[in-house]
Write a structure and sequence with these properties.
It contains 9 helices and 13 strands. It is of the alpha+beta class. The longest helix has 19 residues. The two termini are 42 Å apart. The chain binds adenosine-5'-triphosphate and magnesium ion. The site of magnesium ion has 4 residues, from loops.
Length: 297
């Protein structure tokens, strides 16, 4: 688990961030950045680099490895610190709060500015990279192997999709993005998996959710990971979140993903609320969505 860097931020100095962003720049070319290259990447003197390396190592923001040369690499904590500081500087984030969720490939925290928001740090690529790394020694990895690149791309993708879908589709309102972090509105409610719908709500909620998938399809996207864990249900209605893996509707597997998304919802409702579910056929619903003729269950 990646540590929360928010409490570290006040003790970090501008030069620490120059060093971190110097390491970040070097990582565009190799996973381990040569110590000798850090003055030019960071704009700091060699002596200042030495001092900042110590401070950042001690705080777990970077790591050091000596293979053929002495190299440095960002830890996720260092990358988090860079993203969080950028978001604070442009006043997207004013206060940092409690964890909202730890996903397989993300950490989500409550943050605040003028209202409660959610900050999601993407973690895609990290575990994969580690596994690959153990087996082979990457002296000069292709930059696309880097978890930095993978996580940042996932954040850019998710933010872009939220911007394309909001507000027509019930998704969290996108606020900002930097590096592998996105900031969005904090959702009201609870995950569908933890919601206890009363008998009269069941059909209506399923219908609302299928209508959101239809509306996303109309705007060109299939979520491709819909489940009771990626849907919130609250007083104000439903919200479908967690979009980085969404595919455009012209993707060759879009139809298959759409049907799987609908099936996941229908099966979940079927298991949890068997007595209150109207008879529905997931394949027919998916057809109706794809043809633009969905009008209700
Ligand atoms: N905008 C938000 N407002 C409130 N809570 C949120 C928000 N976004 C995410 N969360 C919480 O954080 C958790 C993880 O978020 P999300 O599903 O987007 O991440 P993930 O890592 O992709 O998840 P998965 O485990 O499905 O891969 C969610 O289950 C939810 O509880
Ligand atoms: Mg999720």
């Amino acid at each position: 688990m990646v540590r929360n860097v928010a409490e570290l931020l006040p003790e970090l100095e501008p030069e620490d961030f120059y060093l971190l962003s110097g390491v970040e720049q070097g990582m565009r070319f190799s996973q381990w950045v040569k110590r000798g290259k850090l003055p030019s990447f960071s704009g700091l003197t060699p002596e200042e680099v030495d001092y900042r390396l110590e401070r950042c190592l001690k705080r777990g923001l970077i790591e050091k490895k000596t293979i053929q040369y002495e190299g440095y690499s960002l830890q996720f904590e260092g990358y988090d610190a860079l993203a969080l500081r950028a978001l604070v500087e442009r006043e997207t984030v004013a206060e940092f709060g409690a964890p909202l969720g730890v996903g397989k490939e993300s950490d989500v925290y409550e943050v605040r500015s003028y209202k409660p928001l959610a900050l999601k740090y993407h973690r895609e690529g990290y575990t994969n990279f580690r596994e690959v790394h153990r087996e082979r020694d990457y002296a000069s990895e292709n930059r696309h192997v880097s978890w930095l690149y993978t996580a940042r791309k996932a954040a850019e993708r998710e933010h872009g999709i939220l911007e394309a879908l909001y507000p027509e589709v019930a998704v969290p309102r996108p606020i900002d993005q930097n590096r592998h972090a996105i900031v969005m509105e904090k959702m009201d409610g609870v995950e569908l998996s933890r919601a206890k719908l009363d008998d009269r709500q069941v059909g209506g909620v399923l219908e609302l959710l299928v209508a959101e998938l239809a509306s996303a399809y109309e705007r060109g996207y299939v979520h491709a990971d819909v489940s009771e864990y990626n849907v919130f249900v609250g007083e104000g209605g439903v919200t479908v979140f967690d979009w980085p893996q969404a595919v455009p509707t012209d993707h060759e597997n879009a139809r298959e993903f759409l049907e799987r998304d609908v099936t996941n919802l229908v099966n979940y409702f079927d298991r949890k609320y068997p007595r209150n579910l109207p008879a529905v056929d997931a394949a027919e619903l998916a057809d109706a969505i794809a043809e633009g003729t969905f009008e209700g269950l």
